[in-house]
Structures are given as structure tokens and as C-alpha cells.
Amino acid sequence: MVKAIRLQCYQNLANYRKPSSFIIKETYPLPPYSTVSGMIHAACGFKELHRMKLSIQGTNRGTISEVYTRYSFSAGAKYEEGRHQICLKDGENYGIYKGVANAELVCENNMIIHILPEREEDMDVIYDGLSNPLMYLSLGRYEDIIDIRSVDIVSLCEENDVETKHNIYVPVSYMRKQGYENINATVYTLNKEYEITKQGLRRWKPESEGGRVRAYYYPAGNVLDTAYVDDTEYQDAVVFA
């Protein structure tokens, strides 16, 4: 029997931006592991990395496109009237472009997130942090506030032939261990953990070091050979990464 935290939450509109999208801010259907981990760190006031395993699943009503104001500039670019829309004065006059762009938004996302802290003492801290967060919590953009519906400590039991009741991230490595090779589902490479370089910059660790996870966006209504199941009345499937 394994103990974990079960977070049920909702977002009306949200953008979980794909790092490779620029012209249009494309979104993942569910928040990646790094985004959820960052939200939990903010809720608890963690100032250093607290590792945890996460299972992320949910359902939504598709996506829409939203227009937003976009600002861009080149380092050291001097202001040119007629070329730049904004002049920033900081010793020199620097030029900033102002325009419009599109962001893809997930609509009415109902999510269930299971959290398994690496440190046993973090269980109560994370539970209390999500129940009474230090600040308003968001997933995706800063303005994408989440509505926390419930926070519970649940027991997980491993079972066979577990049906997925929601769309869920399932690591490719997990499915391969179960003998699955060709699966009709989208595969995403999701960030999970970064490190600080000597220059003080963030760098995502490679997959071999746990910094990225290749995961299927596995549809609801399918069966996993083995998976954890929580002890709530819903008996949700749980697959950690």
C-alpha cells in the first residue's frame, strides 16, 4: 500500500505552452510535470528542489485561440522611429516591437493530480501547502488561476487490467515494460527537472538524468495491464513519472 496526495482541480482557460512554439503559443492538453512541480513548490514556499513523482490526468472541452499583445526586442537594438512602436530609455534609446499574436487555450480542464513526495516528511507539508497555499496558484501562464476542488491523502493499490477514466500521461518507458510497442496515442517530451548552470541559467536536464519524460497522452477508456488505483469512490488509475 502506497500513500499519496490526490489533488482535484479545475481551470476555465489555460495555456501550457509547448517550448517549441513561437508564432502561436501552442499548448499541451495537460500541464507538463515541471509546471505542476513548480506550482507545488510555490504553494509550499520551497526554495530548493523537493523531488516528487507525479501522475497527471484530466478531461477538457478542446481548445480555442486567443489574441494577446506581444512585445519583442533584440538585445542592444537602438530605437528607430517608424520601425519600433515603443522607445525604452535607459541611458540609450532602445526599440521594442509591439504587436498581436495568438495563444491556444485549453477549455474547462478538470484535472486529477497524484503526488508522491520523495521525502516522507514532505507529505504533510505538501498537503498543508495545497490546502492553504501561500499565494494564489496558477498552472500555465501566471494568470491561469486554478480552482482547487479537493486535496486528500489517499492509499494506492497496484492492480491488473486498470481502465483509464481520464486522459492521462503515461511514460513511454512504463508502457514498454508492459510489452506495449506500437500505441495509437500522441507522444510528448515533457520537461520535469532543471539544473542551474555556472552562468546562473536554467538548463533542462536530459532524459537520462530524469530531466525530461517521454510520455503518451493516453486516452480515457483504455486498459493498462498494471497500474495503481486510488481508494476513492472514483478509483482513478495512477501512473507516476
Structure at a glance:
This protein has 241 residues and is mainly beta. The protein has helices spanning 33-44, 122-131, 172-177, and strands at residues 2-14, 24-25, 52-59, 63-72, 86-90, 92-117, 147-163, 167-171, 186-191, 194-196, 202-204, 212-218, 223-230, 237-238. The radius of gyration is 20 Å and the shape is globular.
Report on the structure:
This protein is mainly beta and 241 residues long. The protein is 12% helix and 48% strand. The protein has 3 helices and 14 strands. The strands form 2 sheets. Strands 1, 2, 3, 4, 5, 6, 7, 8, 9, 12, 13 and 14 form a 12-stranded mixed β-sheet that branches. It has a two-stranded antiparallel sheet with strand order 10-11. Helix 1 (33-44) packs across helix 2. It is globular.
Distance between the termini: 18 Å
Q: What is the alpha-carbon Rg in Å? A: 20 Å
Helical content stands at 10-25%
Q: Count of DSSP E strands?
A: 14
Number of helices: 3
β-strand percent reads over 45%
Structural class: mainly beta
Strand-and-helix sequence, N→C?
A: EEHEEEEHEEHEEEEEE
Average pLDDT score: 94
Task: Report the sheet with the most strands, covering strand number, pairing sense and barrel closure.
Answer: 12 strands, mixed
Low-confidence stretches: none
Overall geometry comes to globular
List the defining traits of the structure above:
241 residues, globular, single chain, two-stranded antiparallel sheet, twelve-stranded mixed β-sheet, mainly beta, 12% helix
Walk me through the topology:
Elements: E1 2-14, E2 24-25, H1 33-44, E3 52-59, E4 63-72, E5 86-90, E6 92-117, H2 122-131, E7 147-163, E8 167-171, H3 172-177, E9 186-191, E10 194-196, E11 202-204, E12 212-218, E13 223-230, E14 237-238
Parallel strand pairs: 2-6
Antiparallel strand pairs: 1-6, 1-7, 3-6, 3-8, 4-6, 5-6, 7-13, 8-12, 9-12, 10-11, 13-14
